[in-house]
């Protein structure tokens, strides 16, 4: 339980705060940032939870804000940290962006939300769709709502009763993001797959859904055999609608879904992954006059698949100018604000390989031959109807007491993550021939 919740700016000044218990003085808020800075000066990493003077400080950072919870009791820190993340999500749902200005402009609504989301220090309703039913951004509507929706007191607090659709449909997207770092020798030194199952539910009544995946642990637990590939998911996190006890017993993902869009689950796989899109570049510099690049891209996935919206960011010297490009496919643009040029390929088929050439002038004499200091090549892409992990939706069952028929739609997408980088920018190699 939390005694106090506050949102602070980067200087540690509270923008808004709400006290739920009287055992922690609001003056303790001002001690947070000095304590955090003191830990940094001592060479310690600032952890999301630390204690000082009998007070527990639990915090997260979002953009240029700190969200802070204080408590004197032996609190479930993980629960409070999750609550702070949920608070961020709710405020973003309301105000689109969470920053100092949006907080200053919406004090009344934020206080209303803090009162409804936590009671006497215990987290309550954190589902934004339900909160929006009775806490609106138009103040006159608050008076119209005579009572809190019954949803808040139901066992299922994330879904309202009486929902009706003429056409009952479920859309399920399995989206995997690949993070990868390749060194100058072409070896993968780090790779991971971050997956998310996102849903759009347009279903009447109070349906129960059961989702089955090719989960390796499920096959081992139940003694079943897998006809195809099975995967072992790590760090699995679920939306609150999932019955965790059922998942822990037989790995069945059973839930009553919220209405509309939501993220059902996330997972991670640390299995080694070979680069789906391989890029290498050779550079030939003429000191003080010009620099030339030869870039080769190769799609290292099956021919029946196709990567869309491929973007290859190749770093260049900061003072490079007068760019000239020639590519066998796609288009190339100079992005001086990023000190790079971007090769854009709308569609890249599996097994295909293309070349491009770039020429830049160098107005000043600088050492451009220091390979170790060059930023890596960054790659962005999206491959529909494909998952790098091999995850598959084995079934999606929809059960509702009225017995209606619903249409489930499943889509798979693999995309580049926040870091898909290759340090393969080398001095000119005769193996890459001019276009």
Automatic annotation (TrEMBL):
Record has Iron-sulfur as a keyword: no
Residue intervals of the MHD domain: 167-423
Top-level taxon: Eukaryota
Any one biological process term the GO annotation gives: intracellular protein transport
Keywords: Cytoplasmic vesicle, Membrane, Protein transport, Transport
Compartments, as annotated in UniProt: Cytoplasmic vesicle, Clathrin-coated vesicle membrane
Entry-linked CDD domains: AP-1_Mu1_Cterm, AP1_Mu_N
Species in which this protein is naturally found: Dacryopinax primogenitus (strain DJM 731) (Brown rot fungus)
SUPFAM superfamilies documented for this protein: Second domain of Mu2 adaptin subunit (ap50) of ap2 adaptor, SNARE-like
UniProt key word Lipoprotein: no
Family: Belongs to the adaptor complexes medium subunit family.
Pfam families, per the entry: Adap_comp_sub, Clat_adaptor_s
Protein name: Clathrin assembly protein AP47
One GO CC annotation: clathrin adaptor complex
